[in-house]
Amino acid sequence: MSIVGSSIGFGLITASILAIAAVGFTLQFGVTNILNLAYGDIMTAAAFAAYFATKGGAPLWLAAVAGSLAGAVLSVLLNRFVYSWFARRGAKLFAMIMVTLGASLVVQNGMTAVFGPDFVSLPTSAGTTYQVGPAIFTGPQLAIVALALLAMAGVHSLLRYTRLGQAMRATATNPDLARSCGMATNRIIDAAWLLSGLLCGLAGVALALNLSTFTTGTGGTFLIPVIAAAVLGGIGQPYGAMLGALVIGLATEVSVTVVSPSYKTVVAFAILIVVLLFRPQGILSEVAMAKEIAT
Amino acid sequence: MNHSSGRTFLVAAVLSVVLGACGSTTGGSGSPGSHPTGPVVIAAFNPFSGPDASFGPEILVSCNAAAQLINNVGGINGQHLNCVSSDTHGDPADAVAAAEKLIATTANLVGLIGPSSDEALATSPIFEHAHIPMFADTGQAAYDKTPLQYFWRVTAADDAKGNAMAIWAIRQGYKHAAAVFGNDAGAQADVPALKAAYAKLGGSMDTSLNVALDQASYRTEIQQMLAQQPQVIFTETDPQTAATFLSEVVQLNHTLLPTIGTETSFQSPYVQAVTQSVGNDQLSANFVAVQPYAPATGDAYQIFKTAELAAPGASASDLSTYAADPFAMSYYDSVNIMALAMVAAGTSDPATYNKFVSKVTASTQGATKVYSFDQGRKALAQGQSIQYVGAGGAIAFDAFHNSSGSFQVARLNAAADAAPLGVVTAADIAKVR
């Protein structure tokens, strides 16, 4: 029982990183309809930005801010100078996926060319540990959970209580109707990329903190569970992504208590498939239905 | 399909048939005794990208080191030797395509260094069929008694490595252990022999984890492992997995448990990743690894070292690491063995010289010991039979073209310069097999 209890605790750490990443991923998709496969590599770029900030003497919290900003800037630039160029020329969903795949390869290999293939790490004081129930956590891990909670509360407040959030939701649900109602959808799309990039960057820094070392391919490896969490929750649904991240994060850790750890990702994806069999649109549905992704 | 794309397809199809035909004629299956014209080519057929991307560059550098010495004395039967790379990505599916492309498009391909464990099972039949001798760096036990005639192995098999890990642990008094191996084919190859030898020597493998690679966390697995109170961890994973796993062991256990790794632990990305994750103090105090033993002494080693340090294609620090690595010695030796077999056979035709590989390394009565290609070439020219003794020591192929040896155990540290702690001999291993 104590191992199951602690695995739930450990699963919350993974779920926290996944939640930050998946909410950013799905928020941007919901508004722009672009499945951005370069997302994982932007996470890595943000982690490197944080790494260089710490090398320059910045404290860890400031490095996390630098990483988030780097993620935001890179996302906006990628959209402005690459994705929107193709979108304006009528590239549809599949073509855009290939464009984002290309962007992913360019970003990852560009980082390898510039930063080299070496492993680097963020300076953390992982020596002190804290017993929370049956699980033991380090300070950075508890900080990751707190950051995730703050980020989720922030996203919730933005979507529910601000005009920008309402405009984003409107654009995600029906962009044509939003435009005909006088909303500046292009600015809303820019804001979505910016917000998504901020969350992407924060997730990249959180992942780097949790892994203890990272390299240019690290974020790309993490992209699959991020997409799984987003799809499970209902693609385009920020609240669904939070729920999806929780399910995937907990499933990967708790499954280890019952099956071989070799299958921990298989279990998470088995859950994804089973859920999609009964709810093809994901756990929370309305935007996924509108985007015809899960049907 | 429109006419234009139809024509393009037709041209591509014709080209691929022509190239394929050229490849099979000039590379793999020339008539016995024939002399292909132009330089002969040995390929470093290994991962140059992916998790095992460090394998390929070391092979290519070592091949070039041997090739420079060979070309400086006139080449092989007057033919220049070139080393080329062929990236398998460490993936069997990619490797099959890479193998077929290599055979089809490389003129005068006479041999390979590779394949590695990542792609050996998928590609060794292809090279066998093409009659290309392959000096594999795979350790898979499947090749201990292989029927493949063009497969050669001068490095120890994984099951011998697993045996060596078990023997070392028992020597240190560790009777309760955890096995933590990646779920990739290369790492899994070590496990059966490790478990069998450890049990035979009285050890108890209380936990056996086949871990999924590159996960965000392994804390639950570690919690389960620590509950069994192992005295030692046996491990082989990729660098990212090792860094995450070992740092979490330190987080949950407050210190790194004694850990025994394999030769992949000595690769520079691995050392770099785990040093950053657990710290050099924890690492050098608790982590040892086994690797094939080759005493860095003797004439052959000195010739190898000078050539390796001067080889193109790597940084000075990498060259320095390679010069002390038994695997680099085995790659260099493999090139020399192939070259001397070609000289002995009087042809670079692979189907012919393949039969001479064991003849130039065998310790037969009256054979002249030679320690370099140049010495061997001169002795053969004088009509003598030779025994090539390589940088890694003497090589004795068994009936299945395997030549294994001893293992040394050394501490892992950031500088990768720790002195060996001890040796597990071939005789020790034979007792537990």
Concise account of the structure shown:
Chain A has helices at residues 2-32, 39-55, 60-88, 93-115, 139-161, 163-173, 175-180, 185-211, 218-233, 238-254, 264-278, 286-291; strands at 129-132, 135-138. By secondary structure, chain A is mainly α. Chain A has one domain (2-291): ABC transporter involved in vitamin B12 uptake, BtuC.
Q: Helix segment count of chain A?
A: 12
Major sheet characteristics of chain B = 7 strands, mixed
CATH topology of the largest domain in chain B: Rossmann fold
**CATH structural class of chain A:** Mainly Alpha
Helix coverage percent of residues of chain B? 40-55%
How much strand content do the residues of chain B show? 15-25%
Helix content of chain A: over 70%
Question: Which CATH architecture of chain A would you pick?
Answer: Orthogonal Bundle
Looking at the structure, what is the overall shape of chain B? globular
CATH homologous group name of the largest domain in chain B: Response regulator
Helix and strand element order of chain A:
HHHHEEHHHHHHHH
| Largest protein-protein interface | A-B, 40 and 31 residues
Integer-rounded radius of gyration of chain B: 22 Å
The proportion of residues in beta strands of chain A is under 5%
Question: Could you characterize what this model shows?
Answer:
The complex is a heterodimer of chains A (about 300) and B (about 425). Chain A has a single domain, classed as ABC transporter involved in vitamin B12 uptake, BtuC (Orthogonal Bundle). In chain A, strands 1-2 form a two-stranded antiparallel ribbon. Chain A is an all-alpha fold. Chain A has twelve helices and two strands; from the N terminus they run ααααββαααααααα. Chain A is about 75% helix and about 5% strand. Chain A is globular. Chain B is α/β, with parallel strands linked by helices and about 425 residues long. Chain B has two domains: about 35-155 and about 300-395, Rossmann fold (3-Layer(aba) Sandwich), CATH 3.40.50; about 160-295 and about 405-430, Rossmann fold. In chain B, α16 (about 375-380) links the parallel β11 (about 370) and β12 (about 385-390). In chain B, α2 (about 55-70) crosses α14 (about 325-345), α9 (about 240-255) runs parallel beside α10 (about 270-280) and α14 runs parallel beside α16. The radius of gyration of chain B is 22 Å and the shape is globular. The model of chain B is unreliable at about 1-35 (pLDDT under 50). Classes of the chains: A mainly alpha (about 300), B alpha/beta (about 425). The interface of A and B includes residues 6, 136, 221 and 254 of A.
